[in-house]
């Protein structure tokens, strides 16, 4: 493989809440052309939407700004590195303004681009009038069933607006909801000048993006042979060395912990994949069944023989709606007969609720330590202690609130050995349900906006 024209892209964040040190270490030690940071998930978008409703300047992944503050000195040492992130969430423009202020304070003059157009909530009724149905992909239900409870609706944009932003010489590209792999596909398309109908190379770039999108899952995290991982506490985050022909090598910074081998890469390749022959993205329908993995040295795996088919005419849409309330609480039950005592304590909660005429719509009793987490695998012995977890869900907030008041009484009126009650009543949380659907690309224009210094 000829790597004379090699592009190095590393991903330092796999989700909002990931290791805050990883982006700095990867940028410092990875000799990167591009650093990507992936923050968004379906639930994350709902949370950010509510934040924006309360504060029009909020609605983005705040962790990114903390990371950027610490990245600035590294960026001074590596001025050619560019950053692409979806930290903008529901408010990429506001995130970009805050990022610009941070860079200015650090004395860095960097060009910032915002990718917008994914937020469909303000246009939802307009799109319905134009013929979009937004039917639930799993159930076929019409959007009318939950229209008045919708809190967010975001199309998964692709790599094209990211590449367009980079062509405007953006040093930092901040997007809203884009497909995870597109954070890598965009830089590759821009750097190599590949055509947007070069489905084979788009397939390679999508495989690369998919392999590193979850951060350390490709470098030893969650590996089935975890006991063989060296220094997992200091796991290195993944990077790819891409060639102009498409094939690439997946590796990690020298001296970092973790491991890269065919098993760690294979596990991530199949992560969250329905049909490996048709992995649907906004850029390409990637065919993972052609992918070839070969060892290419210590902590290096070569990926070759990827394939792709033309992209679909639709974007996936992540839509969330209010679906009632939930709460769950835990208690530790210790001593002889812990399992039986935990079950009794859990049933007592619901018996007492029923006595006053309250029957939650959804209920759950789990005894952690007895096999409830791994059904079908019975415990080897009677556990000396059990964690009791009891939860409810209901459209009526008062039902859930009353449920949270039934834990403390078990301390003196339940079976012996109840403890772990000193943290107070469980909080009541609003539930956001997921509504997977589609929207026509032709009705979902994107745009790139440059942020002035």
Descriptive account of the structure:
The chain is an alpha+beta fold. It has 2 domains: 7-118 and 156-312, no CATH class; 320-435, Alpha-Beta Plaits (2-Layer Sandwich). The chain contains 12 helices and 19 strands. The strands form 3 sheets. It has a 10-stranded mixed β-sheet, sandwiched between helices. Strands 5, 14, 15, 16, 17 and 18 form a 6-stranded antiparallel β-sheet that branches. It has a 3-stranded antiparallel β-sheet with strand order 9-10-13. Helix 1 (22-29) links the parallel strand 1 and strand 2. Helix 6 (160-167) packs across helix 7 and helix 7 (182-192) crosses helix 8 (199-212). The model has no long low-confidence stretch (mean pLDDT 95).
Instruction: Summarize the main sheet.
Output: 10 strands, mixed
How many strand elements? 19
Helices and strands: which structural class? alpha+beta
The shape, in one word, is: globular
Q: Which stretches are poorly predicted, pLDDT < 50 over at least 5 residues?
A: none
Assembly category:
single chain
Content of β-strand: 15-25%
Specify Rg, calculated over alpha carbons. Answer: 24 Å
Q: Helix tally?
A: 12
Number of domains: 2
